[in-house]
Design a protein that fits this description.
Elements: H1 2-8, H2 12-26, E1 31-35, H3 59-63, H4 69-78, E2 84-89, H5 97-107, E3 115-118, H6 125-134, E4 138-140, H7 147-153, H8 159-171, E5 175-182, H9 188-200, E6 205-210, H10 226-239, E7 245-247, H11 251-254, H12 256-264, E8 269-273, H13 281-292
Parallel strand pairs: 1-2, 1-8, 2-3, 3-4, 4-5, 5-6, 6-7, 7-8
Helix pairs in contact: 1-10, 2-10, 5-6, 12-13
Bound molecules: iron/sulfur cluster.
Length: 295
């Protein structure tokens, strides 16, 4: 596994050049995964992850509607061709029977589309067998960060439980996405552990989010520079040349209009959101850059 160590020591210029070449030869266009607005059971998560805003009773949580078939169908109607997917994110720490009931109600609408789920930790493999049989396309279990940092930021559940979830998901034959957050003070040895787990579980997609101190999160920001973000994205591309890389939340505050163009030449998929004010100049600019790049 030393190759991850070498990759993580690669300087920006070499990593960026190689990553852009790899993306060009292995991926066409830019896939979009639309994140559905709405919660399934509760708008507030019971876990205590310090880096997350969805476990606090603040405005954004309350504004989100309870997801139902008509909201989901409206979202499904928005996604055009199969290059686009949909993802239901429900901020729950653990899957339970009530959550599975809610998902079963929605699953009939999801038969024609590629719909993924980011819904918390399973009780056992049966949870994944249900989700697979309901017709959901994949399950997202973010590693969030390395165990050294995770242990300091989360007390409600262990990092090891995430590895158990990834193992059960693969055993159930359900596609697995995972990922991590940049900007929590991670160093090369931390990312090496994360890369090793992503490789070990042969994930079918890697999500990269960026730490953004929103919703009352009291943690230091700016622990990684925008150029260092690009270097890490490039290193990830080199480490996983054929695995879809999904650029997630917080990219606007880290990369902004200036560097997003380079990032789009490294990753092959982006999260988009319906409840984001698409009139916002930044999102329009992203669209123009995608068009300009011919994606
Ligand atoms: S389990 Fe997920 S949604 Fe809940 S607080 Fe942690 S990161 Fe946020």
């Amino acid at each position: 596994m030393d190759c991850f160590r070498e990759i993580l020591e690669m300087p920006s210029d070499i990593a960026l050049k190689l990553a852009i070449q790899i993306r060009k030869s292995n991926f066409l266009g830019m896939r979009q995964i639309r994140v559905v607005s709405g919660y399934l059971l509760s708008s507030k998560c019971s876990a205590d992850c310090k880096f997350c805003g969805w476990n606090r009773a603040v405005v954004p949580c309350e504004e989100r509607p309870k997801l139902n078939v008509s909201i989901l169908n409206a979202e499904l109607a928005e996604i055009g061709d199969q290059s686009q997917g949909l993802e239901i994110i429900n901020n729950t720490q653990r899957i339970d029977g009530r959550l599975l009931e809610e998902l079963q109600k929605l699953s009939f609408s999801c038969q024609q589309a590629r719909v993924g789920l980011n819904i918390g930790l399973p009780r056992d493999i049966d949870d994944f067998l249900f989700l697979r049989d309901f017709g959901f396309a994949y399950y997202v279990n973010d590693l969030e960060t390395a165990p050294r940092i995770f242990g300091k930021m989360v007390k409600s559940h262990d990092w090891a439980e995430k590895l158990v979830a990834m193992d059960l998901c693969k055993k159930a034959g359900l596609s697995l996405h995972s990922g991590f957050i940049l900007g929590l003070g991670e160093e090369n040895p931390d990312l090496e552990i994360v890369f090793q787990k992503l490789k070990q579980f042969q994930v079918d997609g890697i999500v990269i989010n960026f730490f953004t101190p929103v919703h009352g999160v009291d943690l230091p920001a700016g622990l990684i520079s925008p150029l260092e973000v690009l270097r890490r994205l490039a290193q990830l591309r080199i480490a996983f040349p054929n695995t879809p890389l999904v650029l997630g939340g917080g990219r606007k505050s880290y990369l902004g209009e200036g560097l997003i163009r380079i990032a789009f030449q490294i990753v092959d998929t982006i999260y988009t959101r319906s409840f984001l004010n698409h009139g916002n100049p930044y999102w329009l600019r992203e669209g123009e850059i995608l068009e300009d790049l011919g994606y």
